[in-house]
Every structure is written in C-alpha cells, then in structure tokens.
Amino acid sequence: MVDRNLSSKLYAAAKEVIPGGVNSPVRAFKSVDGDPFFVQRARGCRIWDVDGNEMIDYVGTWGPAILGHAPSAVIDAVHHASKEGLSFGIPNRHEVEIARTIRDYVPSVEKVRMVNSGTEATMTAIRLARGFTGRDKIIKFEGCYHGHVDSLLVAAGSGALTLGKPDSAGVPDDFAKLTITLPFNRPEAVEEVFEKEGDQIAAIILEPFPANAGLIFPKEGYLQFLRDITEKYGTVLIFDEVMTGFRLAKGGVQEKVGITPDLTAMGKVIGGGLPVGAFGGRADIMDHLAPEGPVYQAGTLSGNPLAMTAGITQLKEMERLNGWERLDEIGQVFEDGVRDTLKELGRDLSFNRVGSMFCLFFTEEKIENVDDVKKSDFNAFRKFFWAALDRGVYFAPSQYEAGFISLAHGAEDIARTTEVAREALREALA
Ligand SMILES: *Cc1c(COP(=O)(O)O)cnc(C)c1O
Predict the structure, then answer these.
(1) d(Cα 102, Cα 88) in Å, to the nearest integer?
(2) Among residues 320, 350, 380, which one ends one of the domains?
(3) Are both 307 and 345 inside the same structural domain?
(4) CA 20 to 30 Å from 194, out of 5, 40, 92, 372?
(5) What is the pLDDT of residue 286?
(6) Parent domain of 105
C-alpha cells in the first residue's frame, strides 16, 4: 500500500478553505473514487508527491509540459526576464516576438491577441465571430470542451463530462438557447441546421481532434466539409487548438490536415507552464477588436513578459530539438508497447494516438463520438488508474481525458510504463 498520508492531510485542510479542495474540478479525482495526491515538485517526466512517492507523469500539467517539467532553458529565461519586472501593463517587446512566432507557425493566423487562459481565448473568439457576422447563434459539438465559457458549457467535455454534469447551473437558458449542440462526425446533422437557419449561425467552434472526451478523430473529409459549409454561409469557422496547437505539429491540427479555419483558439503549450491563451486568425476579422473595432476585449495581465518569455523559449527549444518529429517517434514506441500488451492479454480495447497524445478506452467499440466513449467500462478504468498509480505511473484520472507524452519521456521510462500498464491492465480486466 502506497503511503499518501501527507496528501490526505493537505486535502482535508484544502477542503475547508477551497470548494471541493481544488481549483479545477478534475483534480479532485472524483471519477476514480479517491483522493488526489499533492505535488511537491516535478522535473522531466517525473513528479514527486508530498509523501515522497515518485511517478512517471502522463498528464504533463494537462498539456503544457511538452518538453517535460521544469526545463532549464525555460526556467533560466523566465528568471532572467523577471529581473526586468514582473508585469508592465504597457506594450513590451516579448509580445511582438510571440505574436510573430505564432503567425509564422500557425497557417491561419495573420493577427493574434494574447490572453491568460484557453477559456478567455474561446470566449473572445465567439464574441468576435458574433460581432463580425452580426449573428447570434453558434454551433458546438457534444463532448468538445472549450473552457468554462457560459455559452459553451452545453454538452461539454472534460470535467463537465467527468462529473456527469454536461450543463452547468448558473448558465441562463437564454444563453444556452443560442448554442446549437450537435453530434461530432455527423455531417448530415450540420447540414440540416444550415438548411434551416444557416444565415443566423455566427460560428462553428470545434476541437478538430476532440481530446476532452478521450481522444476522437474526425472521419475522412469531415473537417473539409465543415470548412466548405461555413464558407458557403458566411459562418466563422473556429478551431479550438488549445490542446492540439503547438503539440501535434508546429502549427497544430490545421497544419497536419491542411485545413485553414478563420479563427483559432490557443493555450497550454504556448504558455510554457505559465497562464497563457491566445486567439488569432484572419486580419479582417481580428481588426474588429478594440481599439480598432467595436468588439471589446482586454486584460490587465495579458502579454505578461514572463509568460511570453516562457512560451517563446519553450517553442524555440522544441524547434532546436526537432521536438515534433521526436515526439512522433516516442509516441510510436509507446503505441507499439500498448498494442503488444493488448494482444498478449487477448483484449481488443480501442486505443487512439496521434503524435504525443493518446487515450486507451475500456471498450472495444470503435470511437467516433462521445456516445461511443460512454460505452467504456468505467469501473475497469478506475481499477486500472489506481493499479498504475500505485506502481508509479500517473495517467489522467478520468476516462474522458487524453494522455500526454513529453520529450523528457526516455526509452527506459516508456519501457517501464509498458510493464506497469500490462500489470495494471491484468488487474483491471480480471
Ligand atoms: C484546456 C482547454 C480549454 C480551456 O483552457 P483553460 O486554460 O483551462 O481555460 C479550452 N479548449 C480546449 C480544447 C482545452 O483543452
């Protein structure tokens, strides 16, 4: 039995002063029926909890830690920048540098604005699409998570799914009414809505590879279909690449599949571990933002010099290390290990992977949308999670979350993980 005594004490203390003891719901481990551990420190692909337990980490702070934890290049750069001041609220040169970098990397981005979280990025992208088109309605897809924006907390993924509360209290019906929610990967559902009210749809927002309901891939031609139909009706196509951007390729899914959205929401990797989001796209749309245009958006800490420095440095390191290509290679080795193990156990569980992102589903169902994910054996997942954690491998504490591999995951770490996964699967599927 692994000792998590100090974590338990901290959790009890946290619950007295923080709702549910956490600052973001999935961290509470509700869907695996247990208490979270508290982290002491993290380095490379490893984290240590306050009780001294060491784990190989596949959560990577939910995506940002693409180089691994605490990369010295980023820490040194942030340390250096901090000596010039922590925040200015006045333009600084780091903002120009990161904007140029994003424009160079992301095919659809002509102009970009920096914010402080992925939620802010999607929230503003929606407002901007509405301001630009003069229309109110938006389309989102079941299981796609876009942060905790009121109008997007309808049939959302991630924590909203994990907790079995697709709709949040506190969101007025009148807001939700303007959000049309459709099943992913079903072009006919989208067609039907556009035939009826296409001239009222301001935007379609989606995760091009949905990764907050496990990991789901679009069917052949689906993203192109969405591009075509939005173009036809003058609707803004928004890719939420908060998770996939700068991770699956330098320019995210849009680079990988060669489809150009009008606007893109970004976050996670772009902050290098500090709180950063961004949204960008066509200049004629972006110029509708204040102070040039009528759509208001602002932020006291937006473009923060330390956060910009962390993001720029992380991306430069990725480039220097040929990171995206290497992650594809590490991901392939990881996948081979999982597939061999499943074969050995005689179980045909669905396993999806692209580059450094993966999800093992406790179902043999082919995964096309969130309804398929819901067929998973959640009890087996829970057993698997704890069996792996007790052996020192930390996977995300929910069937609805993807896993992340970083550049710090070496061959030995992957081999150890495969071994642990085999034992944990045996235990969970017994
Ligand atoms: C994490 C995430 C968000 C929200 O970002 P926060 O920084 O947590 O507000 C939005 N969209 C997607 C696809 C995400 O994965």
Answers:
(1) 22
(2) 320
(3) no
(4) 372
(5) 98
(6) 72-320
Active site residue 145: yes
Name the active-site residue from 11, 268, 400, 413.
Answer: 268
3-state SS assignment for residue 358: strand
Report residue 181: phi and psi, to 5°. Answer: -105, 130
* 206 and 61 part of one domain: no
Catalytic: 58?
A: no
User: Shortest CA distance to 132 belongs to which of 17, 250, 281, 246?
Assistant: 281
Which mean pLDDT values do the consecutive 10-residue runs of the chain (430 residues) have? 95 98 95 96 98 98 98 98 97 98 98 98 98 97 93 76 65 85 96 97 98 97 98 98 98 98 98 98 98 97 98 98 98 98 96 98 95 96 98 97 98 98 96
Judge if 91 and 202 occupy the same domain: yes
- Residue 146 CB less than 6 A away from ligand 1: yes
- CATH number of the domain that 359 lies in? 3.90.1150.10
Is the distance from the beta carbon of residue 212 to the nearest atom of ligand 1 less than 6 Å? Answer: yes
Q: What is the pLDDT of residue 165?
A: 47
How far apart are the CA of 213 and the centre of ligand 1, in A? 13
C-beta of 309 in contact with ligand 1 (< 6 A): no
Same domain, 86 and 61: no
CA 243 – ligand 1 centroid, Å: 7
CB 86: neighbour CB atoms within 10 A?
11
- The tokens 């720029």 sit on which residue? 312
Note the pTM of the prediction, 2 decimals: 0.97
How close is the Cα of 214 to the center of ligand 1, in Å?
A: 14
Domain boundary among 263, 291, 320: 320
- As given in the structure block, the two tokens for residue 278 are 């961004």
Q: Between the CA of residue 231 and those of 136, 226, 227, 323, what are the distances in Å?
A: 17, 8, 6, 34
Domain match, 176 and 47 both? no
State whether 10 and 30 are in the same domain.
Answer: yes
Number of domains in the chain: 2
- State yes or no: is 240 an active-site residue: yes
State the CATH number of the domain containing residue 105.
3.40.640.10
